[in-house]
Amino acid sequence: MSDEILQPEAAADDLAFEGALRPGSLAEFVGQQKVRRQLQLLLDAAQLQNRAPDHILLAGPPGLGKTTLAMIVAHEGERPLRMTSGPAIQHAGDLAAVLSSLVPGEVLFIDEIHRMARSAEEMLYLAMEDFRVDIMVGKGAGATSIPLELAPFTLVGATTRAGLLPNPLRDRFGFTAHLEFYETDELHQVIERASRLIGLEIDTDALREIAGRSRGTPRIANRLLRRVRDYALVHGGAADHAAVSAALELYDVDEHGLDRLDRAVLSAIVERFDGGPVGLSTLAVTVGEEAETIESVVEPFLVRSGLVTRTPRGRVATAQGWRHLGRREPAPEPRLIDDL
Ligand code: ADP
């Protein structure tokens, strides 16, 4: 869904912009108060004992600040940072190459850690626990393993699917942070800061409107801000509430922040399956999208917005979900007295 303005994954044109807007310290990081305090404690304790902080797992939907937090962990401890991702580690050898070149105290960030190769996962267990890996040399009966000492490092893993991580890997993190969607007030602060940094004059009403339509996600809030800036620039007007409404209408973002795909999923449940329950894979086929995208991006937002609930038998539209599409939830079937 690379054409979607509300997709929470980074698009190519986000990267340069995001680099400039990333908060550089925990104090500048908006929201996630509990996680911030927990991380601060972890970093302070490591600093006092002059050791690398414990390994950290950051779990949550895309665009909520996992990469930013990994950078902050390195920055606050004045430690170098190495960044890689699960899909880039397809063999244990890929991981061995990264691990063996780390300098003492380095922070290793592995994004989408749930997508790493199984063989690499097993190597990582030992590396995280004992700062050691066993390198296999040779093949068949003549194969031997050579232990290799590693520099102490801090692994920061990020995942949108904590449930997909094998328990032995999950257990080796000293701290797991579950990032939550942001409140509108918090997103307001995020884009207020961003507009200052990009030198955009924008009024409070406009900021509030953008914040309310950003699916609880800072990356989306920053992206919508950019489209509003473009709109005001091209039309020669102010970045005000009217510009926000016009720009977001152009990009198909409705007043609750639902985009085309969110609405497609909701209306599939309501129109095609009579409100549900409907299973994830059926839903994915119906709207022509990957099940993983529906599960990790669309569904958490629809559930959080109170439009859909998850039941053991599948996804169900709530009364509010029906109303969002301008429909009324049908009354339950009348039950015969004998059934009661
Ligand atoms: P993730 O790694 O979870 O996909 P990122 O860390 O790349 O998300 O965040 C996306 C963008 O959103 C960043 O460039 C940053 O500017 C912004 N951002 C994320 N979280 C915050 C926050 N708490 N405060 C301010 N900006 C944030």
From TrEMBL:
<dbReference type="InterPro" id="IPR036388">
    <property type="entry name" value="WH-like_DNA-bd_sf"/>
</dbReference>
<dbReference type="GO" id="GO:0000400">
    <property type="term" value="F:four-way junction DNA binding"/>
</dbReference>
<feature type="binding site">
    <location>
        <position position="219"/>
    </location>
    <ligand>
        <name>ATP</name>
    </ligand>
</feature>
<comment type="subunit">
    <text>Homohexamer. Forms an RuvA(8)-RuvB(12)-Holliday junction (HJ) complex. HJ DNA is sandwiched between 2 RuvA tetramers; dsDNA enters through RuvA and exits via RuvB. An RuvB hexamer assembles on each DNA strand where it exits the tetramer. Each RuvB hexamer is contacted by two RuvA subunits (via domain III) on 2 adjacent RuvB subunits; this complex drives branch migration. In the full resolvosome a probable DNA-RuvA(4)-RuvB(12)-RuvC(2) complex forms which resolves the HJ.</text>
</comment>
<feature type="binding site">
    <location>
        <position position="310"/>
    </location>
    <ligand>
        <name>DNA</name>
    </ligand>
</feature>
<keyword id="KW-0547">Nucleotide-binding</keyword>
<keyword id="KW-0067">ATP-binding</keyword>
<dbReference type="GO" id="GO:0009378">
    <property type="term" value="F:four-way junction helicase activity"/>
</dbReference>
<feature type="binding site">
    <location>
        <position position="21"/>
    </location>
    <ligand>
        <name>ATP</name>
    </ligand>
</feature>
<feature type="binding site">
    <location>
        <position position="68"/>
    </location>
    <ligand>
        <name>ATP</name>
    </ligand>
</feature>
<keyword id="KW-0234">DNA repair</keyword>
<keyword id="KW-0378">Hydrolase</keyword>
<keyword id="KW-0233">DNA recombination</keyword>
<comment type="similarity">
    <text>Belongs to the RuvB family.</text>
</comment>
<feature type="region of interest" description="Head domain (RuvB-H)">
    <location>
        <begin position="255"/>
        <end position="340"/>
    </location>
</feature>
<dbReference type="InterPro" id="IPR041445">
    <property type="entry name" value="AAA_lid_4"/>
</dbReference>
<protein>
    <recommendedName>
        <fullName>Holliday junction branch migration complex subunit RuvB</fullName>
        <ecNumber>3.6.4.-</ecNumber>
    </recommendedName>
</protein>
<dbReference type="GO" id="GO:0005524">
    <property type="term" value="F:ATP binding"/>
</dbReference>
<dbReference type="GO" id="GO:0016887">
    <property type="term" value="F:ATP hydrolysis activity"/>
</dbReference>
<keyword id="KW-0347">Helicase</keyword>
<dbReference type="Pfam" id="PF05491">
    <property type="entry name" value="WHD_RuvB"/>
</dbReference>
<dbReference type="InterPro" id="IPR004605">
    <property type="entry name" value="DNA_helicase_Holl-junc_RuvB"/>
</dbReference>
<dbReference type="InterPro" id="IPR003593">
    <property type="entry name" value="AAA+_ATPase"/>
</dbReference>
<feature type="binding site">
    <location>
        <position position="182"/>
    </location>
    <ligand>
        <name>ATP</name>
    </ligand>
</feature>
<feature type="domain" description="AAA+ ATPase">
    <location>
        <begin position="52"/>
        <end position="183"/>
    </location>
</feature>
<dbReference type="Pfam" id="PF05496">
    <property type="entry name" value="RuvB_N"/>
</dbReference>
<dbReference type="GO" id="GO:0005737">
    <property type="term" value="C:cytoplasm"/>
</dbReference>
<feature type="binding site">
    <location>
        <position position="172"/>
    </location>
    <ligand>
        <name>ATP</name>
    </ligand>
</feature>
<feature type="binding site">
    <location>
        <begin position="129"/>
        <end position="131"/>
    </location>
    <ligand>
        <name>ATP</name>
    </ligand>
</feature>
<keyword id="KW-0963">Cytoplasm</keyword>
<keyword id="KW-0227">DNA damage</keyword>
<dbReference type="InterPro" id="IPR027417">
    <property type="entry name" value="P-loop_NTPase"/>
</dbReference>
<dbReference type="GO" id="GO:0048476">
    <property type="term" value="C:Holliday junction resolvase complex"/>
</dbReference>
<feature type="binding site">
    <location>
        <position position="67"/>
    </location>
    <ligand>
        <name>Mg(2+)</name>
    </ligand>
</feature>
<feature type="binding site">
    <location>
        <position position="315"/>
    </location>
    <ligand>
        <name>DNA</name>
    </ligand>
</feature>
<dbReference type="Pfam" id="PF17864">
    <property type="entry name" value="AAA_lid_4"/>
</dbReference>
<comment type="function">
    <text>The RuvA-RuvB-RuvC complex processes Holliday junction (HJ) DNA during genetic recombination and DNA repair, while the RuvA-RuvB complex plays an important role in the rescue of blocked DNA replication forks via replication fork reversal (RFR). RuvA specifically binds to HJ cruciform DNA, conferring on it an open structure. The RuvB hexamer acts as an ATP-dependent pump, pulling dsDNA into and through the RuvAB complex. RuvB forms 2 homohexamers on either side of HJ DNA bound by 1 or 2 RuvA tetramers; 4 subunits per hexamer contact DNA at a time.</text>
</comment>
<keyword id="KW-0238">DNA-binding</keyword>
<dbReference type="InterPro" id="IPR008823">
    <property type="entry name" value="RuvB_wg_C"/>
</dbReference>
<dbReference type="InterPro" id="IPR036390">
    <property type="entry name" value="WH_DNA-bd_sf"/>
</dbReference>
<dbReference type="InterPro" id="IPR008824">
    <property type="entry name" value="RuvB-like_N"/>
</dbReference>
<dbReference type="GO" id="GO:0006281">
    <property type="term" value="P:DNA repair"/>
</dbReference>
